Amino acid sequence: MSAASAGIPVVSAADIERAMTPPAAVEAIDAALRSGLDVEADHERIFAPLSAGDFLLMPSESPDAVGIKVATIAPGNTRLGLPKISAWYLVFDRATLQPAAIVDGTRLTTLRTPAVTAVAVRGLLAADPRGARRRIDRLAVLGSGPQAIEHATTLAAILPVGEVTIVGRTPERVEDAVAILRDRGIDARTATLAAARDADVVVTATSSSTPVLDLDDIAPGAVVAAVGAHGLDHRELGSDLVRAADIVVEARASAVRESGNLAGATRGGEPLAEPANLVELVSGRLSRRPGAPAVYTGVGMAWEDLAVVQGIMEVMRRGSASEETT
Length: 326
Known about the structure:
The protein is of the alpha/beta class and 326 residues long. The protein is 36% helix and 24% strand. It contains 10 helices and 15 strands. The protein has helices at residues 13-19, 22-33, 105-126, 146-158, 171-183, 239-244, 252-258, 260-266, 278-282, 302-325; strands spanning 2-3, 9-11, 46-50, 53-61, 65-73, 85-93, 99-104, 136-142, 161-167, 188-190, 201-204, 223-226, 246-249, 276-277, 294-297. It has an 8-stranded parallel β-sheet. It has a 7-stranded mixed β-sheet with strand order 1-2-7-6-5-4-3. A hairpin with a 2-residue loop joins strand 3 (46-50) and strand 4 (53-61).
């Protein structure tokens, strides 16, 4: 951890790596959901269009801290080999609103997004009407970027995972993703979309604005987590899949504002049944229908970043206190 010129600690990506493992991030999200958090009341994200993409501001408040993520979303960066999302996170004291830390928001995002997805996938597997499931035999990931890699890594860190297949449009990037996962001890290989038909969990983490997965592409009763689409005009899931599935969202309010997967499925058709939110899922209030797929579709919410940041800062505080006593 370095210090900025104003004396505010700067938490780097390397600091985050040392302080917070993927399983710890998952538990930080789970604990926040079980703490009485009202996900429906979280602050709206603020988008400001730019010529190359969007500015994104994500403010949130917890009982102990306040914070805001300032991010840019540049879809064209994937063609340049650059990150689609770049960000910094600013943490403030809740009582005085004085700045407390600056955190690398790009690494934070690639840590917290799969952590939220992992909470959802774990809950949907546990709610399987055929009996609670505690492992993933076959995981298919559509996408080959940082989020695809980190989703496979996080799921493998909290559940036993068998075969992992990576599906993508660019062979070189898919091979690179597979190599990274293998270096992490994960049994990964390249595949085509047909692999999704045999998977019990499918993750879509793509930059596509049009559907990449539909009902005919998955096994009956499969769990699907769609996390790549941002905005009402972007969607990764086809209408047949969304309409057939038991749906879980982070919050109904944010899904109405931003989920293209849900908005696309309602155009020209009947309204969808009301989805469950993550609080309802982790508290066991979701009943999955026999034979129906389950879909978690996430857009990202500000409370998620703050929950993980607070976990990071607490670990770093404990480390600093330990150093002072030795």
